[in-house]
Design brief:
- The protein is α/β, with parallel strands linked by helices.
- It has one domain: 3-Layer(aba) Sandwich (Rossmann fold).
- 45% of the residues lie in helices and 20% in strands.
- The chain has an eight-stranded mixed sheet with strand order 1-2-4-3-5-6-7-8, with helices on both faces.
- Helix 5 packs antiparallel against helix 7.
Length: 255
């Protein structure tokens, strides 16, 4: 359903019953990446997912930033009567949740990070800005195949053409300007002090993730006060859909 959040229209969905679990997707993705998780966990939890402003069915109403997405998340919780929840983030969603947990610790019961995204090093910032410029100049078609190949594991590319097709569709259906602004928001992000995240955290990495290598997730888990690290084989950066059974088993046990 569409909800008015902070003067903008965002696509928000709720399924299931029980304590709330809030799901945040990554760059170039939408709430649909969480369909396997919703189907696996909605018997136990109320699953709330939404398209970030600038992605999918949530139009880009202005400049985007980590701060604006954090504020949107807080407003979505308020709008839906949620005082505190468990949260699951993928890629860019993990970065947003790190900032949210540091700012609103009382609202975060547990966190699960899939394909950790931390404030990028300078080379990565420049590459993402260049991607935004390329999308504005040439359209999403100019970057889609490279993003798909770089984000999926060799196993997925060889054995799961339906996942390859889904990731291509997620990217190609984005609004080009919304995607470009999302890239720039990520490129401008700052790091969060891991010590500010006090709740239990599950960090899940794909063994073949070239976007966020396992060392990134393992390193963050070591820095967090309460964290567990899990590595999933035959999996790249798109963990929720590349290896949904393994991911959802881990989420169910942790959440």
């Amino acid at each position: 359903m569409l909800q008015e959040i902070r003067g903008k229209t965002l696509s928000v969905e709720k399924q299931g019953a029980g304590d709330p679990v809030v799901l945040l997707h990554g760059l170039g993705s939408t709430a649909n990446v969480w369909e396997p998780a919703v189907r696996a966990l909605a018997d136990k939890f109320t699953m709330l997912r939404f398209d970030l402003e600038g992605a999918g069915r949530s139009p880009c109403a202005g400049e985007l930033s980590i701060d604006s997405w954090v504020a949107d998340l807080a407003a979505i919780l308020d709008r839906n009567g949620i005082e505190a929840a468990r949260f699951v983030g993928h890629s860019l969603g993990t970065l947003i949740l790190q900032h949210f947990a540091a700012r609103y610790p009382e609202r975060v019961l547990k966190l699960a990070f899939l394909g950790v995204n931390r404030a990028p090093p300078e080379a990565r910032r420049q590459a993402v800005r260049e991607r935004a410029a390329k999308v504005r100049a040439e359209g999403l078609e100019a970057i889609t195949d490279a993003v798909v190949k770089g984000g999926l594991s060799p196993h997925t590319l060889a054995e799961k053409p339906e996942i390859v097709a889904f990731v291509r569709e997620l990217l190609l259906r984005q609004n080009p300007e919304g995607y470009a602004r999302s890239c720039e928001a990520m490129a401008s992000s700052v790091a969060v002090d891991p010590q500010a995240i006090r709740c239990p955290v599950l960090v899940i990495a794909g063994a073949d993730d070239a976007v966020s290598p396992p060392a990134n997730g393992e390193g963050l888990a070591r820095e967090l006060p309460q964290a567990k690290f899990i590595l999933i084989e035959k999996c790249g950066h798109w963990l929720p859909i590349e290896q949904p059974a393994a991911v959802n088993r881990a989420l169910r046990e942790f959440l």
